[in-house]
Structures are given as structure tokens and as C-alpha cells.
Write a structure and sequence with these properties.
- This protein is α+β, with helices and mostly antiparallel strands.
- The chain folds into three domains: about 130 residues, no CATH class; about 90 residues, no CATH class; about 180 residues, Nucleotidyltransferase, domain 5 (2-Layer Sandwich), CATH 3.30.420.
- About 35% of the residues lie in helices and about 15% in strands.
- The chain is built from 18 helices and 15 strands.
- Strands 9, 10, 11, 12, 13, 14 and 15 form a seven-stranded mixed beta sheet that branches. A two-stranded antiparallel sheet has the order 1-2. A two-stranded antiparallel sheet has the order 3-6.
- Helix 16 links the parallel strand 14 and strand 15.
- Helix 7 packs across helix 9 and helix 8 packs across helix 9.
């Protein structure tokens, strides 16, 4: 049975060369012949057993032995190891608008423009090769794309962006993730355990470390999916799935960490100033707001609108230990919920019997009026004094309020540190609203892995 040439428009039966078994060289041949699958417009894959490219598409310089006859004897044509077919007579059948739209190489779908001949200078940047080669070597490769026309050369370089690139650049790691350096980030990754390689959604283009790196960049710098897709060389849909999967995973894993220390640990680690003024303090609580995109449902709009911020927000109650470690983060509620309502619905109150001991105390803001809720557990709430129809406070109350304010300031500092993760400063879009409670929790828990602020 004759073998036809697989190059589009060529039906030659003069014989030719099978596609090379080397993945990189085979990819170059596939790009060169510009053959696409009819339905999906993706790069055509040959059958290595019988798909051939005929002799007409190779230059004489592509052969080790170019002459078929020598001394009256027929000799077999032998290609050089790096030979790629380059002689074609393709016809321009697409419109200028179609060429403009297709003039972008998609590394995920392997869409190849019909009027471009790609020449890979160092190593392939395509996903198929990346899954079989060393990650660092692939990320450091550059793909040079040159047009066959007489016009200017088109350069298309894959961005060299992954965690390994910043292994020795501490300032870059700190900027993108908030961790001190690569070792600090690696420590956090190892804390998550072996389940990082067995998540429901797996992306073969990125290692688990780089998926975590991508997710933390999203939280820290709040880059949009298109920006992250360009940096990491994958589609926006993959970015969205990676972020949602890892946020859920981080929430489940960090929830397993016991951040509520015992009374003995609190006393041993309590700063001297706390011991002198408020020795029974177990937790300092305060509420924080995060802006969200206005919900489409009118009831949700009403329950989340903040008159102070003049926008829709969600509110979360945060608690820290005297040693400035985040020990408690509630679920997120609409801004219309009061501080008392949030505490009534969260485990700080629901589990008060196991979290507190008799004579313990909670430090809170003036508006957190929950003394009666914790009185049944013999837990006192320290908060600034209310005037209660008085013209001015007594001198001892003023001194006490100043002491409380000097200690409460630390919970505000912790909230400020958590909001260096810019996703908590920017308006959270509709697509992330189902994850908003988990995002807030993860950002505050990440603060515990960063250097403590001084007391």
C-alpha cells in the first residue's frame, strides 16, 4: 500500500521519512508542516508507524548523504539528526482578520497560526514536552517564532516564571508571597503534608509547589487570572480551578492546626506588660470588613451594605493571643450583622465551656457588648468604659481605658498585616464570593507563618 505525504496539499507517493521518535524533534516537524485537526484546530499528531513527510520538503543540506546515486549505485538518503522539513508551497486562504485572531500560540490547546513557521531555538515550551522534561529546564527555555513572509520577525517568548527562579531572590519571594525566603515558603508547603499531590483537580503543567506559589500570589498581589495565565503559561480556566482548589485545601489543612493555646501556654508566653495589667487575658477580639462586589439578590445587597464604607462588605471577627498570634477567625457575615450577632454564631461563644477557664477574660472594643453571654462561664470582658449619661469619665477609668487601648492596638496591627494580602483590600468579585470566608481565614492563618510583630 503506497504511503502518501502527510503535508497539507501534498499527495506525493515518491516516498519520504517517518516522523522522528524524539518528542522535541517530532514537535518541530509537526509545527513546520502546519497541519491541524479539522474540528478542534489543534496541532495534528502523526502516527509514528506510517505517517511520512516526502523528500520534496527537505533541502539538500538536510541530508548527510544528499545524492541518491554514487558510482552507479543507489544510496539511501540519510537525514541529519536535527533536520526539519522547510520546503512548502502553502496557499494563503485565510482572511487578515482570521490571521490576526489566530496569531497567538496557545500552549495549552496547541493552536498554531496558519501563516507562521516556528523554529524552536533552545527547547520546546509546549505542555506536552514540559510534562516529560525537567521543569526547571523547560521554564528556562525560549521559543523564537519567525514569520516566513518578508515582514518583520515575530518573537514569542514564554515568560520564565516559577518558584525555582526566585530560589536565591529573597526580596522577590517576600514580595510575591509574604514569606521571608524560599526555605520559609518550602517549610509552609511541607506543613501541608503529602495530600498536596492528591487534590481533586490536578494541573500537569505546574508542580504542586508552583500551584501553591500561584495561589499565594493571587492572595498576596491579587493579580487577575489573565495576568497569572500569562506569567505561568496556562489558561485562565486552569488558573481559576487551581486557585479555588487550593484555597479550599488550605482552609481544610489550616483548620486542623490547633491555634487556641492552653491557659498554661498563654501564661508562659505572655509579655510582661500584659502580666502586670491584664494577666487573665486569653484573647483580644476585633471585627474587620472586606469589600465585595454588590450581590445581584436584593436581600443579600441589604444584608451586606455598609453605611460606614458606603459599599457592600462582609464582616469577620478575629482573635489574637497576648503574644500576637491569630488564635481565632470566625466565618464571614454580612456587614448588617452586629458584633454581638457574629460572636453568638461562632465557636468562640458556642465552645466557650471548653475554650475558657473560670476567671479568664476577653479584651474587646467598646461596641462589643457580650458580657452577659460569657458571664455564665465566669469569663469577664475587658472593654473601654461607656459614659452612660456622664459628662466625663473618672480618672481611674481613663487610665484603665488607656491601658486597654495600648493592648488592643495589637489586634489592629495583626489585621493590618493580614491585609497586606491585597485580595482583602480589593473588592472580591462574584466568582470568589462562595470562597470569601475561606479566603479571609487562610490570609489570617498565613500571618502566623510570618514574623511576629513586637509587643
Amino acid at each position: 500500500m503506497p504511503s502518501y505525504c502527510c503535508v497539507p496539499g501534498c499527495k506525493s507517493k515518491i516516498g519520504g521519512h517517518l516522523f522522528p521518535t524524539d518528542n522535541l524533534l517530532c514537535k518541530k516537524w509537526r509545527i513546520a508542516i502546519k497541519r491541524e485537526n479539522a474540528g478542534s484546530k489543534t496541532l495534528w499528531k502523526p502516527n509514528l508507524s506510517y505517517s511520512i513527510v516526502c523528500y520534496k520538503h527537505f533541502k539538500p543540506t538536510d541530508y548527510v548523504i544528499a545524492n541518491r546515486f554514487q558510482h552507479g549505485r543507489r544510496r539511501r538518503r540519510i537525514l541529519k539528526n536535527n533536520a526539519v522539513p522547510s520546503l512548502f508551497s502553502f496557499r494563503e486562504t485565510v482572511s487578515e482578520e482570521s490571521k490576526r485572531k489566530r496569531n497567538q500560540i496557545c500552549t495549552v490547546c496547541e493552536v498554531i497560526p496558519a501563516d507562521v513557521v516556528c523554529k524552536i531555538e533552545v527547547s520546546s515550551v509546549y505542555t506536552e514536552v514540559a510534562s516529560q522534561a525537567n521543569d526547571s529546564a523547560i521554564y528556562q527555555s525560549n521559543a523564537t517564532v519567525a514569520t516566513q513572509t518578508a515582514g518583520p520577525t515575530l518573537l514569542c517568548n514564554k515568560v520564565n516564571f516559577n518558584l525555582e527562579v526566585f530560589k536565591n531572590d529573597n526580596s522577590a519571594v517576600q514580595y510575591y508571597t509574604g514569606f521571608d525566603d524560599y526555605q520559609h515558603f518550602d517549610l509552609f508547603f511541607n506543613v501541608l503534608g503529602p495530600f498536596t499531590s492528591n487534590l481533586n483537580y490536578k494541573c500537569d503543567d505546574l508542580s504542586p509547589r508552583n500551584q501553591l506559589f500561584l495561589t499565594v500570589i493571587k492572595l498576596r498581589q491579587n493579580k487577575d487570572y489573565q495576568d497569572l495565565g500569562i506569567l505561568f503559561g496556562i489558561s485562565k480556566q486552569s488558573i481559576s480551578k487551581i486557585v479555588s482548589t487550593w484555597v479550599r485545601f488550605l482552609w481544610h489543612q489550616l483548620k486542623e492546626i490547633n491555634t487556641w493555646p492552653s491557659s498554661e501556654v498563654i501564661k508562659q508566653s505572655m509579655p510582661q506588660s500584659f502580666k502586670q495589667q491584664f494577666p487573665t487575658t486569653r484573647v483580644t477580639v476585633d471585627a474587620t470588613e472586606v469589600p465585595i462586589e454588590r450581590p445581584t439578590d436584593l436581600v443579600s445587597q441589604s444584608s451586606t451594605f455598609s453605611t460606614n464604607k458606603n459599599k457592600n462588605t462582609i464582616k469577620t471577627m478575629v482573635g489574637i493571643t497576648p503574644r500576637v498570634t491569630v488564635s481565632f477567625v470566625s466565618d464571614s457575615f454580612g456587614d448588617a450583622a452586629s458584633d454581638r450577632q457574629i460572636i453568638e454564631e461562632c465557636e468562640l461563644y458556642l465552645e466557650a465551656a471548653t475554650r475558657f477557664e473560670p476567671k479568664d477574660s476577653i479584651m474587646a472594643d467598646r461596641g462589643v457588648m457580650v458580657q452577659d453571654l460569657f458571664a455564665m462561664h465566669d469569663v469577664f470582658v475587658n472593654r473601654p468604659t461607656m459614659l452612660r449619661r456622664q459628662s466625663q469619665l473618672a480618672s481611674k477609668d481613663v487610665v484603665k481605658d488607656r491601658h486597654i487601648a495600648s493592648k488592643r492596638i495589637h489586634v489592629e496591627r495583626v489585621i493590618g498585616l493580614a491585609k497586606t494580602y491585597k485580595i482583602l483590600q480589593s473588592t472580591i468579585p462574584h466568582g470568589l464570593l462562595p470562597l470569601v470566608s475561606k479566603i479571609v481565614f487562610v490570609c489570617f492563618m498565613l500571618k502566623n507563618f510570618r514574623p511576629k510583630c513586637s509587643v
